[in-house]
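[Solved] Which block belongs to which protein?

Original post:
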Amino acid sequence: DRVHTGERVICDVRNDHDRGASEFSVVTKDAPGLFARMAGIITANGLNIVDADLYTSSNGWAVDVLCITDLDQRPVNDAVRWKRVMDQMQLVEEGSSFDSKIPNRLKPRFGRRIRHSEPIVDIDNDVSAQETVLEVHADDSPGVLYRIASVLAEEGCSIERARISTHVDRVVDVFYIRAISGEKVTSKDQVARLKDALIEELKREGA
């Protein structure tokens, strides 16, 4: 196990060899776009998020538990790489400085990917009393979670809770989101814009 305790961000990592992945936990104050920046750091370091549980406490703390592999779908045993990730996580509240490193990480490793099926985005305001529920089904690809979270941040949505999972080569992500105002995303225009933006992003070349 490796633990990095900073002034504002606490990180912990342990390898779960039975699961074939590393479990990476982060505790910090929640902020708009926080998860997109965290996913950006992971992606910029050549790692992949295959499963995640995200929570935001009532007093504003984000507790995120991420299941991470290298690009060969194995646990990450490189202590130097983990130290770099943890050091960068200390700056996560200050915005992303890793965007320039991400595009190369998003390229398919073995030429153009074959799309198995079209992305599906469903937005529901009836399931939860306090949050809008967003469900995304899409082909798995490097950095797909970063790309989804970035669209949510750009559209002014905060992630309150999420359940991310990968099944073979397909991701099924469920996000409980709110608008910047703290209310549900109920505007028909905003719902349509968010759905269109996500589908457009997931259909892009290299997705």
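(Second protein starts here: sequence line, then its structure tokens.)
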Amino acid sequence: VGYPRDGFNAVQAVKKSGGKGVTVTDNEILEAIPLLAQKTGIFAEPAASAAFAGFLKLAKSGEFKEDDKIAVIITGNGLKDILSAMKSVNTEPLLINPDEKELDNLKI
């Protein structure tokens, strides 16, 4: 977020809770969208996927211990930004008729 609504209080909450912040790139956010959907079934918009991208970055850096309990809050549905979702998977949507047999025959 270029200009957080309440950046000062957000930073204070992170410090007070012993939390940590991490920056992620736009590319890391877009890469997190399909991974989150594939692994959890959650379709997140880019702003919400940023939290998961940060989790992935910290996990790869060895930040977490095996017994750590971690919550990643995803608040925005991917339907809010379909263009970014399409960009994240680099493909066009599959179009089929509303027929169960067509769905069964879909090769994905």
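Accepted answer:
You had them paired correctly. Confirming on the second one: The chain has a mean pLDDT of 89.
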